[in-house]
UniProtKB/TrEMBL annotation:
Luciferase-like domain residues: 20-302
One Pfam match: Bac_luciferase
Sequence similarity: To bacterial alkanal monooxygenase alpha and beta chains.
InterPro entries noted in UniProt: Bact_Lucif_Oxidored, CmoO-like, Luciferase-like_dom, Luciferase-like_sf
Protein name in UniProt: LLM class flavin-dependent oxidoreductase
Length: 340
């Protein structure tokens, strides 16, 4: 049996604006996307905190989590992630405690320590570069605020206390892998933009994992850019939308999604092409057979429990079809045999 048939599938979305469309369109399309992957049996739908980036509309992450939770029935909705040093832990605990009260057993709290923006916006958030150094203590404070009230405890999250919202640590380097292992928390690696350290980070996490009251054994999500189409040629055409997006990121331009191109030739310089390809090195792009082979290879390298898909395709219908084809590849998933 393929490894892909044994893992859980989930989705990461940035609520991207498409060229020629509005921010409201992007939010409506995100809701429809969550509904679609819920029907396909995906486990989670996560949104990522970013600020002051034209084309990405997930800045008010907890607000969107509530909106999407209210328009879905079963799928877990969460943050991939909340950049904790941007916020007081009490505020995060209150927001996610409220969400967990409204949508019991459906909310995830993924945490990162990067600012999710540029230096000027970081200052506007009243965040200092050194604030990331306090990330471990902030995670512990958040755990306490979401856990049971202790005798004599003066600071409480209301709602939030005793909701036990699941906390995940997210990372693109080795720091969060070590911290997640030490704290006995589940770990998600951002291989959709930082594939170089994927295998090392996952192995470090697993080798050093300490069982906790939260988790008895390691649990790993890897985020992977995936574009599936009936033919390799069509998949590569659709994937040029994501390639243009990363190229725009490198050039400091808007990240609004652009329509696909027949070829990227002439649209980037050789060093830009190399940079984009390195950025997207973990991508699985192609026909169902090709995507299955790539994902199975990634799973063999990492023994991940869950694949969280990132799919930048311009037309919503083509995006939905790509995800349907992916779900078909994993249709033998034995009711989430590795879920926890």
């Amino acid at each position: 049996m393929s490894l892909l048939a044994q893992v859980t599938l989930s989705m990461l979305d940035l609520v991207s604006t498409r060229s020629g469309h509005t921010q409201l369109d992007a939010m409506k399309e995100s809701v429809a996307l969550a509904q679609h992957v819920e029907q396909l049996g995906f486990e989670r739908f996560w949104l990522a905190e970013h600020h002051n980036i034209e084309g990405i509309n997930s800045s008010a992450t907890s607000v969107l989590i509530g909106h999407i939770s209210g328009h879905t029935q079963r799928i877990r909705v969460g943050s991939g992630g909340i950049m904790l040093p941007n916020h007081p832990p009490l505020v995060v605990a209150e927001q996610f405690g409220t969400l967990a009260t409204l949508y019991p057993n459906r909310i995830d709290l993924g945490l990162g320590r990067a600012p999710g923006t540029d230096q000027a916006t970081m200052r506007a958030l009243h965040r200092r570069p050194q604030d990331a150094e306090h990330f471990p203590e902030q995670v512990q404070e958040l755990q306490q605020l979401l856990g049971p009230n202790q005798h004599g405890q003066q600071l409480r999250a209301i709602p939030g206390a005793d909701t036990h919202v699941p906390i995940w640590l997210l990372g693109s380097s080795l720091f969060s892998a070590q911290l997640a292992a030490k704290m006995g928390l589940p770990y998600a690696f951002a291989s959709h933009f930082a594939p170089r350290m994927l295998v090392e980070a996952v192995q470090l996490y697993k080798d050093n994992f300490c069982p906790s009251s939260t988790l008895a054994k390691p649990y790993v999500i890897i985020t992977v850019p995936v574009v599936v189409a009936e033919s390799e040629q069509e998949a590569k055409r659709l994937a040029t939308t994501g390639q243009q997006k990363i190229l725009s990121l490198f050039r400091g331009q808007s990240l609004t999604l652009k329509p696909p191109l027949d070829s990227m030739d002439g649209h980037w310089l050789p060093h830009e092409q190399q940079g984009v390809e390195q950025f997207l090195a973990a991508s699985a792009i192609g026909s169902p057979t090709q995507v299955s082979a790539k994902l199975n290879a990634l799973l063999a390298q990492t023994d991940a429990d869950e694949i969280m898909v990132v799919t930048d395709i311009y037309e919503p219908s083509a995006r939905h079809q790509s995800l349907s084809l992916l779900a078909e590849l994993a249709k033998n998933n034995p009711s989430g045999s590795r879920q926890r």
